[in-house]
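mind reviewing these C-alpha cells:
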Amino acid sequence: MHIVLISPECAPIVKVGGLGDFIQGLAKELQHNGHQVELILPKYDTLRYDLMPDFHKLEEQIWSPCYEEYLPCDIYAGSVEGLHCFFIEPQSPHQFFDRGAVYGQPDDAERFAFFSRASLEFLLKTGRQPDILHCHDWQTGLIPVLLYEVFQDTPLHHARLCYTLHNLGHQGVTGDYVLRLVGLEPASLITPERLAHHDNAGGVNLLKGGIVYSNFVTTVSPHYAWEIQNTELGMGLQSTLLTHRDKFGGVLNGLDYSVWNPDTDPLIPHTYNHERLNEKMHNTRALRERLGLQDVHQPVVSVVSRLDGQKGVDLMIHALRFALANHAQFVLLGAAMDEGTQQTFEALQQEFATSADCRLVLEHNETLAHWVYAGADMIIIPSVYEPCGLTQLIAMQYGTIPIVRHTGGLADTVFDANYAEQAFEHRNGYTFNDSTADGVESGLRRALGLWHEYPDYFRQLRLNAMNSDHSWNASAQHYVNIYKHLLNK
C-alpha cells in the first residue's frame, strides 16, 4: 500500500508530545513491513535540520488558497531515520511556521487549516495517488472535509482516509473564517451533524469535522475509546462518536524499542536487561550522584511528565510528600505548562533544595529522562485522563514499576500486582481508581511495602514489567487491517 501520514509532528525532528513518537513509530513499522510510506509536515523554523543531512528544496512549487488569494508554497524533502518526509513552507507575510514554536499561536487554527489544504494541493500537483491518507488530531481535521467537499473530482478521490484522535482535550474550536480561508462554504458545514461546535453558536470544531468526514476514526487505546463515548471525557463529542461508532475503534500505541531499550540505550550510564537486572542498581547510584541525593537503602520514586492539570499535578505533589514520609526518595523531571503551575513547583523546588532525598528538575531534558527511567524503582502517573501514555510503557521496559490511575491507556497496559484478573506473571504495576490523595496513597503504599518487605516479589514484578510486549509490531498490524478494510469497502 501507498500510505501518506499528514501530521503536525514527527519525532525526532519535531516533537511536542506523544503524537511525535506515534508518527515516528507507526511510520517506521509500516515501512519495515514493506509499505510505501511518506509523511507531510509543516516546515517549522524549529525543525531539527541537523538530523536530516539530505534536506533539500524541491523544484515543485504549489499554490494554495488563503481567503481571496492564492499563496505560493515551497516544498522541501528530507529523510528522517529512513522515512521520506515532505515539508510545506508557505511564502506568506503571516510566516505561519516561522514562529519559534509549534503550537500556542493566536492563529493556530488558520495556520493548520492552510497546511491541511496545501498538503492536498501538494499531493495533487505531484501526481501522487495514495491508497491511504492517515491524518492526526485537530490540526489536520479539515483534510477529510476538503477531500470530500473539494477534491472529490480529482485523482485523489479514491484515497481512503483514516483519522486518529490523540487527545480530545484539544479540539480546534474556531470561527467560520477558517473555513473560508481554505475555500469551504461555512453555511452548509456549520450544522450539528457536521462541524458545528456543541456549545458555541456559530463555532467550528475542526476535530469534529475529521470524525464526521473520515472513512475510519481511531483513538490511541481501547479504554479511552470507551471513555470518550460514554463519559464526560468525550468533552462534548460523545453523541458524535456514538453516531459514528461503526467506523470508530481504539488501537493501543506502540513503543519504539530501538529508542527505549535498557540493553542498548546509549544515554544511560549502565546498560542492562532482564537477565542482568542487578545492574540496574548502578543506574540508581549514578542518578543519585548526578542529582546530589544520598546513597541509601531506599526506593527511588519518580515522576517524568509535563506539569499540567491533565497529568494530575496536585497528586504528584501529594505523592512526593507521602514518599518522603515513608522511607523513600523522590525525583521529579518535568516542565510546567502555565505560570501558576511553574510557580508552585518552583516553591517546592526551593523547599527541598537542601534535601538529601528529593530533587525537582523543572525542564524538558531527554537525556535525564532516560537516566530517571533507568535509575528509579517506581514511577507515579496520576493522570486525570490519559488517552494512551508512553511513560508507563517506557518505565516497564526499564524495570521501573508504574503506579497509575486506572484510566485510558493506563488501564489497558498496567495490571495491578494485587487485584488484577491476570495471572501473576502478567501483573506489572499498581493501579488506583480515584483521582484523590487516598487513591494515589493506596497504590504507592502497596508498592513501597513490597519493595521494603518482599524484595524477591518486587524483583519479579520488575521482570514481569520488562517482559510486557508493547512494540509497534502488533499496533501497526491493527492499522494495516483497518487500511485493508477501507480499501475493500
